[in-house]
Specification:
Radius of gyration: 34 Å
Shape: elongated
Structural class: alpha+beta
Number of helices: 26
Number of strands: 22
Helix content: 40-55%
Strand content: 15-25%
Length: 647
Amino acid sequence: MLVAPMSSLSFSTPRFQTLLREHPDAIAAIICGLLVLFGWLALHVGWLGLGLLILPAAYVIGGYSSAREGLTTLFQEKELDVDLLMIVAALGAASLGLWRREYYFIVDGAVLILIFAISGALEGYAMKRTERSIKSLMNLTSDTARVLHDEIEQFVPVEQLQIGDTVLVKPGELIPTDGLIIEGYSTLNQSPITGESIPVEKTVEDEVFAGSINGFGALKLRVHQPPESSLIQRIVRLVEQAQTETPPSQQFLDRFERLYARIVVLTGLLLVILPPFLLGWNWETTIYRALIFLVVASPCALMAAIMPALLSGIANGARNGILFKNGAQLETIGRVRAIAFDKTGTLTTGKPQVVKIVPVLKASETQLLQIAAALESLSEHPIGNAIVQAARQYQLKWNNAVEVQAQTGQGITGIIDNKKAVVGKAAFVQAQVKEFPANLIEISKQLENEGKTVVWIAHAGVVLGLIAVADTVRIGAAQALTELKKLGIEQIVMLTGDNDRTAQNIAKEIGVNRVYAELLPEDKVNAIRHLQKHYQTIAMVGDGINDAPALASASVGIAMGVAGSDVALETADIVLMADRLEQLERAIRLGRRSQVIIKQNIVFALSFIVLLLIANFLGDITLPLGVIGHEGSTVIVTLNGLRLLRN
């Protein structure tokens, strides 16, 4: 019965090897702690030789990692860091103990090493949590895809998929790569990718994303881009980039640490030499206090004040469909005072939809849609596609049109039921009918003044009515802008290449403060620069290629993840994966919370360093107490930064 437990603790078991590989600092800290305990017990009972044999092993095992880091920095970069300061302090305590034959100093040094090792293990564990939260994105994709060749299923590694391949996804399976549905209907859980909590309905011609979870229906997909270009792979690359880039505030602290370490070493040397002459201290007290000074003055907590908070914020955002490309942008978004929005595809859906059907007295809405759809179903024009889509939503059927002819920018004609049908602009239709209802002309002008595109329909020489088509406001846009104003955003503007009339109508509907219309891409850049002069920190939200220059010019560029072009996604600093504008509020709140936490950490770290320094010279703290205070403050600062992992 005892064999199994003992074997489970064996150093050769896979469990222990995995633990050692993933948490080597924790294993070193545990072994160091046991050695310190046994060494102290040996000295306590008078086994001096055994104690002096065990305690150096604790120094080596607990301090190896810090010594390696410190010496690497010293010899390769010619700089001092806090790791080396800790080792010097511990070795100084051991040397003092051997010199004075007061061996409790050796125990003090070993305890210093132990607490420093425990602190490093706790910080490593805390940072692993953030790293696991971010890297969980990388486990969202399947390794293989079920490819159909002549209706025969073959499992193929995802990286070997080719554009044009047909992929079968069965109910409950992960979508292996981005693709277009060519057959089937289902609901997909896209929350791992976009943060959407509600499953999304998908059918033929809809795009699906790798990492989404298929619902009840089988789907056939056509691969339309290389697997490495899929949305999830772009997310992974951008998150990896975010982890490696250092924000300006952290760069400043890194430079400060090196200067600060030199000052601490120089001050420590002066404290070893001057107090016996100036304060009358004995040499033992002087050296001991100097060693404590090296410990408590080290800026470990200060150095941990920033990155845990920023990485936690990045992880929180990634879980909720907000992709920060680096910590600098998480810092910046919290300081934004004004936001500029592109209109088409950002504040609006970017897809024309039928918004009004106005038949004449003898006609019906159904008849209007049937005639228009019969002609427009043979057209590729976006407005025509919107009309056909509306007819399909009403589940209408229509007779085929023949002899169809389109005139670019004017309209389309054809024969339906042996009678001529005309769909298009007012002038185009008016030239081919006998009467033109005056009341429809007034209605048409009113709709056009509202920024809508009006399509006239005639059949057999008689006007049947008109259909108004418009780019509709994105769901939630108005509420999102309202919440941004509540957050204190001072100015919300719209930048668009569309005409001023249409832009003003959209702006009025959703609550935009100011409109810049009929802009070229370079005009959008100039508008951003003008706003920066007044508000300093500006965010730009866009989706298209023409938005890329403005996204790059803004303090923070924000792209729509689904609707956004590849250029916009690459240029932007933040990506809203689900195209949900309400996530802007969450992004800004995350940025502001990160700034608050960072300021809390810096104030706490500096205050604790000052408190420990005063206690060292005016009080009577021991080296272990100094270490506990120093390392405890570092752990507290790190854990405080990790609060952003919570939703």
